[in-house]
């Protein structure tokens, strides 16, 4: 019986492992990764490593054991995820895991933008499987925005298609800590958590905070969806990814990522990380 984290070599997975190590011993943890070399650092710290690929169901046999408490981190290959996710759920069911916590999307079925589709279908597959579940319906990360601060400062504007919609972001680390709380706690079976930051902000408010912290005038430029897609493609973002990001912005404009029920801070036992703090941290990381 272990605590298992899939997607353990990704950005969220690595943070979850750090949070688990604050709460439990390394030999209680198993990381599931598709690339052994990427997982070498985890193995060196005494964490178990299982090599498995969501796209190759045979590799998932043996990734889980009876009684495991598993964090299933959603894949990042849009369009292929439902088939992949079904394979993970099947393997978890066959192994008889005690809990399968899945990183879904804030709002679940009420999120109508395209990124949400595979999450909603995965939720349905998980519920139909009979495996004890926990839906961690994660809202957007601060890092979705602060991760492009260098480009924002270079071009002198925040761009998007979110209009005056609000988005309740939290730090990726906040979501990671909440996952660790669920994995190491009790009573989370067959529950749904709507996880989001304590404060929902508009893109114009984000641009104003970037302006305040940098001492520059950085406006928010709202673009029609097609124009925003074209701009991202010009900057090197693959077309499908660009369309999905712009479509999610349309969802933000409709208010679909704005909910602030306080369930993330409730699990953490503290407020979520303020956006202003994430901007400060990201600015420190930029080359001067
Ligand atoms: N809430 C948000 O704002 C937000 C933003 C971005 C993404 N997401 C979603 O949340 C997930 C976690 O976020 P993140 O920041 O950690 O993303 P990430 O760094 O891209 O991590 C995704 C993880 O999934 C693993 N993975 C992908 N396809 C796989 C496959 N076929 N078999 C096995 N493992 C596979 C990756 O393995 P490798 O390490 O080998 O690449 C990686 O570890 C993402 O995958 C995406 O579904 C949410």
From TrEMBL:
SUPFAM superfamilies: NAD(P)-binding Rossmann-fold domains (SSF51735). Residues 7-160 form the NAD(P)-binding domain. Pfam families: NAD_binding_10. CDD domains: TMR_SDR_a. It comes from the Bacteria. InterPro entries: NAD(P)-bd_dom, NAD(P)-bd_dom_sf, NmrA-type_oxidoreductase. This is SDR family oxidoreductase. The lineage of its organism: Bacteria, Bacillati, Actinomycetota, Actinomycetes, Kitasatosporales.
């Amino acid at each position: 019986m272990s605590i298992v984290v899939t997607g353990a070599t990704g950005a969220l997975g690595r943070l979850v492992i750090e949070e688990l190590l604050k709460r439990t011993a390394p030999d209680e943890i198993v990381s599931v990764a598709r690339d052994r070399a990427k997982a070498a650092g985890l193995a060196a710290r005494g964490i178990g490593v299982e090599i498995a690929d969501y796209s190759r169901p045979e590799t998932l046999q043996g990734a889980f054991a009876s009684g495991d408490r598993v964090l299933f981190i959603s894949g990042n290959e849009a369009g292929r995820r439902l088939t992949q996710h079904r394979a993970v759920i099947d393997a978890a069911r066959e192994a008889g895991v005690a809990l399968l916590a899945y990183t879904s999307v804030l709002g679940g079925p009420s999120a109508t933008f395209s990124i949400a589709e595979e999450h909603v279908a995965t939720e349905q597959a998980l519920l139909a499987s009979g495996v004890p579940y926990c839906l961690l319906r994660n809202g957007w990360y601060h890092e979705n925005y602060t991760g492009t601060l260098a480009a924002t400062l270079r071009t002198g504007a925040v761009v998007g298609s979110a209009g005056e919609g609000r988005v309740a972001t939290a730090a990726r680390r906040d979501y990671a800590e909440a996952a660790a709380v669920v994995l190491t706690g009790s009573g989370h079976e067959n529950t749904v958590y709507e996880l989001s930051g304590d404060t929902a902000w508009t893109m114009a408010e984000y641009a104003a905070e970037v302006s305040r912290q940098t001492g520059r005038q950085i406006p928010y430029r709202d673009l029609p969806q097609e124009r925003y897609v074209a701009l991202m493609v010009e900057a090197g973002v693959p077309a499908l990814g660009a369309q999905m990001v712009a479509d999610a912005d349309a969802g933000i404009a409709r208010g679909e990522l704005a909910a602030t029920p306080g369930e993330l801070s409730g699990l953490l036992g503290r407020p979520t990380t303020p956006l202003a703090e994430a901007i400060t941290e990201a600015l420190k990381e930029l080359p001067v």
